[in-house]
Design goal:
A seven-stranded mixed β-sheet has the order 7-6-5-8-9-10-11. Strands 2-3-1-4 form a four-stranded antiparallel β-sheet, covered by helices on one side. Strands 12-13 form a two-stranded antiparallel sheet. The protein has helices at about 15-25, 55-70, 95-105, 125-130, 145-155, 170-175, 195-205, 240-260, and strands at about 1-10, 30-40, 45-55, 75-80, 85-90, 110-120, 135, 160, 180-185, 210-215, 225-230, 265-270, 270-275. It has two domains: about 1-80, Alpha-Beta Plaits (2-Layer Sandwich); about 85-275, 3-Layer(aba) Sandwich (Rossmann fold). The longest helix is centred in the last third of the chain and has 24 residues, at about 240-260. It is an alpha/beta fold and about 280 residues long. It is built from eight helices and 13 strands.
Length: about 280
C-alpha cells in the first residue's frame, strides 16, 4: 500500500466529505488521517487527507478527477514519499541556512537541497561541507531574474526558501513562483523596520520578540503568513542576547513553515493560510 496526500479547496457546499471519502473507499484506499475546515468568511472549504492505497499515483488522480470537476475543486494528490527539491537563498546571516541544512541531513525535512544561492560568498565553504552546489549571484547582476529562474528550472526546484536573503525579489519572480517562495523576517511588537532591528528593540525595552515565516508576494513582507514564533525578553537582555534569541526564533519559525509546506499541510486562503498541523 503506497501513501498519498490529497489536498483540496473549493466553494463550501453539502456533500464534499461524503463524495471524497466515498471515492477513496471505492478505490480501496484507507484513510490514515483527515483534516478539514470551512471558512465562513470566504465561503471556501479546505481538506487534507493522508491515505494509503493499492493504485499508482496517475490512476488515483484519474479516478479523482470527476469529483474535482463536479465540486470545482483546486486539488492535488501527492506521493507521500516524494521528496521535493528546494533552493535556499541567503545573504550574510547564516543561522537559518545552517539550521535547514542540518535538519535536511538528519531527515527532519523531507526534501533535497538542490542549490544555495547568495549575493555574497560567505557560505560557500558551508555549502561545500554539505555537498550542495553554491551559486554566487550578485544583487547587481543585470540578469539576476533570468539566472535565478534558470536555476529553478535547471534543478527542478519546487520551493525557494529565503533564509535571511536581504534582497527584494522582483514582482516578475514573485508572480512566476507564486506559492513557491517562503521568507523569514523579524516581527517585533512593535515592528522595527530598517537597519539594526534588535538595537531598536533594545532601545525601546521590548518584552516580546518574534519572527514570521510567510509566502512571498510582490508586496514586501505582506504575503500569507504560515508560522510565527515569539520569545519573552526583559530589561536584562542586551543587544547581543536579543540577537541570539532572535536567531533561534527565526530558525524555528522558518523550519516549521518549510516542513509544513513540504508535507502539503499549507493551503492558501486569499491573504491568509490554512495550516493542517
Amino acid at each position: 500500500m503506497d501513501g498519498f496526500v490529497l489536498t483540496l479547496s473549493c466553494p463550501d457546499r453539502l456533500g464534499i466529505v461524503h463524495a471524497v471519502t466515498g471515492l477513496l473507499a471505492e478505490q480501496d484506499c484507507n484513510i490514515v488521517d483527515s483534516q478539514q475546515f470551512g471558512d465562513r468568511d470566504t465561503g471556501r472549504f479546505f481538506m487534507r487527507v493522508h491515505l494509503e492505497g493499492p493504485h499508482a499515483l496517475d490512476d488515483l488522480q484519474r479516478a479523482f478527477e470527476p469529483i474535482g470537476t463536479s465540486f470545482a475543486m483546486d486539488w492535488h494528490i501527492h506521493a507521500e514519499l516524494a521528496r521535493q527539491r528546494i533552493l535556499i537563498m541567503v545573504s550574510t546571516q547564516g543561522h537559518c541556512l545552517n539550521d535547514l541544512l542540518y535538519r535536511q541531513r538528519v531527515g527532519a525535512l523531507p526534501a533535497d537541497v538542490a542549490a544555495i544561492v547568495s549575493n555574497h560568498r560567505d557560505f560557500e565553504t558551508l555549502a561545500s561541507s554539505y555537498g550542495v552546489p553554491f551559486v554566487h549571484l550578485p544583487a547587481t547582476a543585470p540578469d539576476r531574474d533570468e539566472q535565478l529562474l534558470n536555476l529553478v528550472a535547471e534543478h527542478d526546484v519546487e520551493l525557494v526558501v529565503l533564509a535571511r536573503y536581504m534582497q527584494v525579489l522582483s514582482p516578475r519572480v514573485c508572480e512566476l513562483l507564486a506559492g513557491r517562495i517562503i521568507n523569514i523576517h523579524h516581527s517585533f511588537l512593535p515592528s522595527f523596520k530598517g537597519a539594526k532591528p534588535y538595537h531598536q528593540a533594545h532601545d525601546r525595552g521590548v518584552k516580546l520578540i518574534g519572527a514570521t515565516a510567510h509566502y512571498v508576494t510582490a508586496n514586501l513582507d505582506e504575503g500569507p503568513i504560515i508560522e510565527q514564533e515569539v520569545a519573552r525578553v526583559d530589561h536584562g537582555d542586551d543587544v547581543d542576547a536579543l540577537t541570539a534569541i532572535g536567531r533561534d526564533v527565526e530558525c524555528l519559525a522558518l523550519a516549521r513553515a518549510v516542513r509544513w509546506h513540504l508535507e502539503h499541510r499549507v493551503l492558501v486562503d486569499g491573504h491568509k493560510t490554512i495550516v493542517f498541523r
